[in-house]
């Protein structure tokens, strides 16, 4: 069995879905479990609907809810124009889901109160709409397709908007749900992103979580491959929106991919790697607009050559500098510091320490007020904002002669605030001013990947 996950752009409209269905059709012999995202931009629309409902903007929500319904009804008609009965079935389901959502949003609007629990219900609607329409469309094209409600098998804790998956419950539930849905069918389809607590309360896995769903399903059924179908030709040496002459990387290790996903490459959700590693399942990153392309395969370390694979970045980070003379010659200071990060659920990326100073980087989207307040009780704390983090990633880069020269030579005039090289030898990261980031990434990429004389 394989898992095939299609992201928002691969299911954006009739043309994209038609292409996606033919990709699935070509793999029926491998028994695909298809995992789909919401149509592109639909999750954003649902977030907007939630915000307007919380603000009691009734007419605003009605307008957006109508957009949601008409886009999906229109899609069902476009996809199944030659199969009226499947089209009718799809429209009935879409109308049912949209009626339910209208009523729910109406209630939220009347109260003007939106809990995470309600929000998770609203924003998971996109995946129910897309998966139902695509299921009908596949059946209309002769692919007998079974439907699985992800809430019956992707089990999380009660963090409604970013559920923490319960691997053992998932491994227990998924195989049965998949085999029941497969009965008499050629394929099965389910929703990415969508999950539930053990009691069946709706949760979601966090933004971009469909990739994560796919790898959780893959882990639970011991899939032979997890395919992430997106709109780019695999993982590249840098973000092509910022850097020219990037190349597609043929193979990377799980470790390299995890570092890349975490440190800026937008291709994969960062948590996707872990479930695949548990069962050593290869992950393919493929382009649904160019299905013939080779894409990138993510494999166990031993199949991967040493060397730099990519230059990634996080454009907007904060550096928290912690100074305390109490740190000198004492033990337990770091514990005290990181306990504060842990209690406040602030995740740290890079760390660098000296005798009386600790600097850490965190993503700027995180709320650090409490952390700073609590650290300030026993240390001097300065926060630098408008900083960016650049990471050179590759297996055993430490063995690469002249790596530091090649990385830093193009940055002669650039101020570098912090440097950190992980002991895993996969990641060399440093922090620069945000205004200098793009230029720095371009220069380093050029020096490392284009200019062979830089050796
Ligand atoms: N639809 C969700 C989002 O946009 C999940 C996903 O597409 O991966 O975040
Ligand atoms: Mg995505």
Describe the protein.
The protein is an alpha/beta fold. The protein has helices at residues 14-25, 42-54, 58-79, 84-111, 116-123, 125-140, 167-182, 210-221, 254-262, 273-279, 333-343, 369-375, 403-408, 434-450; strands spanning 2-6, 32-36, 145-147, 155-156, 187-191, 194-197, 202-204, 225-230, 251-253, 283-287, 296-299, 307-323, 348-353, 357-363, 380-395, 416-421, 427-433. Strand 1, helix 1 (14-25) and strand 2 (32-36) form a beta-alpha-beta unit. Helix 3 runs parallel beside helix 6 (125-140). The longest helix has 28 residues, at 84-111. It is globular and about 75 Å long. 47% of the residues are buried. The model has no long low-confidence stretch (mean pLDDT 93). Bound molecules: aspartic acid and magnesium ion.
Give the biggest beta sheet: 8 strands, mixed
Low-pLDDT residue spans = none
| Helix share, percent | 40-55%
The gyration radius over C-alpha positions equals 24 Å
Question: Keywords for this structure?
Answer:
455 residues, alpha/beta, 8-stranded mixed β-sheet, 6-stranded antiparallel β-sheet, 14 helices, globular, binds aspartic acid, binds magnesium ion
Tell me briefly what this model is:
The two termini are 44 Å apart.
Task: Indicate the topology.
Blueprint: E1 2-6, H1 14-25, E2 32-36, H2 42-54, H3 58-79, H4 84-111, H5 116-123, H6 125-140, E3 145-147, E4 155-156, H7 167-182, E5 187-191, E6 194-197, E7 202-204, H8 210-221, E8 225-230, E9 251-253, H9 254-262, H10 273-279, E10 283-287, E11 296-299, E12 307-323, H11 333-343, E13 348-353, E14 357-363, H12 369-375, E15 380-395, H13 403-408, E16 416-421, E17 427-433, H14 434-450
Helix pairs in contact: 1-3, 2-3, 2-4, 3-4, 3-6, 4-6, 7-8, 8-10, 9-10
Magnesium ion (MG) binds next to loops.
């Amino acid at each position: 069995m394989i898992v095939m996950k299609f992201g928002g752009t691969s299911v954006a409209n009739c043309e994209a879905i038609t292409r996606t269905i033919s990709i699935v059709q070509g793999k029926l012999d491998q028994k695909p479990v298809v995992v789909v995202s919401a149509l592109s931009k639909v999750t954003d629309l649902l977030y907007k609907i939630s915000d307007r409902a919380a603000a009691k903007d009734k007419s605003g929500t009605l307008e957006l809810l109508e957009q949601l319904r008409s886009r999906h009804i229109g899609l069902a008609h476009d996809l199944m124009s030659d199969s009226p009965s499947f089209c009718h079935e799809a429209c009935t389901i879409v109308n049912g889901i949209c009626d339910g959502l209208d009523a729910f949003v109406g209630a939220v609007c009347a109260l003007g109160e939106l809990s995470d629990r309600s929000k998770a219900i609203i924003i998971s609607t996109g995946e129910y709409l897309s998966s139902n329409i695509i299921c009908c469309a596949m059946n209309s094209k002769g692919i007998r397709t079974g439907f699985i409600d992800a809430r019956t098998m992707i089990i999380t804790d009660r963090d409604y908007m970013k559920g923490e998956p319960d691997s053992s419950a998932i491994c227990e539930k998924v195989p049965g749900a998949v085999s029941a849905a497969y009965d008499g069918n050629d394929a099965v389809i389910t929703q990415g992103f969508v999950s539930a607590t053990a009691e069946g309360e709706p949760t979601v896995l966090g933004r971009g979580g469909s990739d994560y769903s796919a790898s959780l399903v893959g882990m639970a059924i011991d899939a032979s491959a997890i395919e992430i179908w997106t709109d780019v030709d695999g993982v590249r040496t840098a973000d092509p929106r910022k850097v020219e002459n990037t190349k597609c990387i043929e193979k990377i290790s799980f470790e390299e991919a995890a570092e890349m996903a975490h440190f800026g490459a937008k291709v994969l959700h960062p948590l996707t790697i872990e479930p695949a590693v548990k069962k050593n399942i290869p992950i393919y990153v493929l382009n649904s607009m160019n299905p013939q392309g080779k894409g990138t395969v993510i494999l166990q370390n031993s199949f991967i050559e040493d060397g730099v694979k990519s230059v990634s970045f996080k454009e907007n980070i904060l550096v928290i500098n912690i100074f305390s003379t109490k740190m000198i010659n004492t033990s337990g200071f770091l514990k005290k510091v990181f306990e504060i990060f842990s209690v406040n659920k602030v995740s740290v990326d890079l760390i660098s320490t000296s005798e009386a100073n600790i600097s850490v980087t965190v993503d700027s989207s995180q709320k650090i007020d409490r952390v700073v307040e609590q650290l300030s009780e026993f240390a001097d704390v300065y926060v630098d904002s408008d900083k960016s983090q650049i990471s050179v990633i590759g297996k055993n880069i430490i063995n690469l002669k002249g790596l530091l020269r090649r990385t830093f030579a193009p940055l002669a005039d650039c101020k570098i605030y912090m440097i950190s090289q992980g002991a895993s030898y996969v990641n060399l990261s440093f922090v620069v001013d945000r205004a200098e980031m793009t230029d720095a990434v371009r220069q380093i990429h050029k020096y490392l990947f284009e200019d062979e004389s830089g050796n």
